[in-house]
Each structure stands twice: as C-alpha cells, then as structure tokens.
Amino acid sequence: MMKKTIGMMFLMGVLVLAACSPAPAEMEQDMPAVEEAVMEAEMPVEDEMAEEAPMAEADAPVTEMEMEVTESGYIEIDALAAQALMESTPNLVIIDVSTAYANGHLPGAINIPLTELSGRLSELDPANPHLVYCHGDAPAIAGAEILAANGFSPVYRLEGNYSGWVAAGLPVEK
What we know:
By secondary structure, the chain is an alpha/beta fold. It has helices at about 1-15, 35-40, 45-50, 80-90, 115, 135-150, 160-165, and strands at about 70, 75, 95, 110, 130-135, 155-160. The protein has a single domain (about 1-15, about 55-165), classed as Oxidized Rhodanese, domain 1, CATH 3.40.250. The chain has seven helices and six strands; from the N terminus they run αααββαββαβαβα. It has a six-stranded mixed sheet with strand order 1-2-6-5-3-4. Strand 5, helix 6 (about 135-150) and strand 6 form a beta-alpha-beta unit.
C-alpha cells in the first residue's frame, strides 16, 4: 500500500510538470451496464421518434454520444455530454484540478488542485458522481485516475478540458 501511495505521488508530480503535453490515446471499452441503462431511459421510444422529422447528425441527442471507459475506470465525456450530465445529476461534484480556477471554471465547480487532491479525498463522497477537468489533459487524467483508484464511482473526465467547454460555447464562471 505504501509503495502504491508513493508511486501515485511520484506520478502526480510528473504529470503536473507535463500538464500541457497531449495525453496518450486511451483504450476503448464497453460502457458499464448502469450507464447504458441511464442512456436508454433517456432515449425516446420508437413511436415518439416516428412522429419527429429525422435529425441531422449535429442535432442528435447527447445520450446517443459514445462514452469511453478507460482502463483506469473513469469515463471520458465531451462538453455537451458533460453539460447534460450536469443538468440531470444534482449530486454531481465538478472538480477543477487546475491552478487557474480564478481565471474561469465550469459552473458549480470546486477547485482542488491536482497537487492537493490525494490529501483532500476525505472532503469528497465516493458515492457521488464526479466530473474532473483541468486546462491540460495530463492533470485531468491524473485526477480522474486518483478518484477511480480510491473507489470513487462513477468518475467522468471532460475531454477537451476547459478549452473544449469554452469552444462549445458553454457558460463559465469567474
């Protein structure tokens, strides 16, 4: 256990230093059955769909978007899926692991810099869903991995991070 903790702290330090470097592609895995059930429950029934005009690909419901579950146990979601998750999940905890929180952050986000996250896990409820993001891939991935490795579930990571959220034209707080 001690070796794992020391190893995780070393990894966090390396990742903080490499915060702006691109992340390696994560392996795609099937979405957990719970996520599939949630998505299916949000999908319109066939009769409702038959009455509507066909949707353009850009107008497709957020629930149709693929969610990628990583080997580390967290779920990759894009900005529009994150927004839908925020609107439909009142107990979602949004964590900005950056040191640039004051420059702008997602609505309702709390700031726990990556360097402090392991020491502040007791402030969080592992039973609540968590959405992690940053201004760079490496810290956000490290933050999501820390939560997942410590029994938090589900854990989501915002693909594209803060800049992806802003690029999608979604609201921010300062």
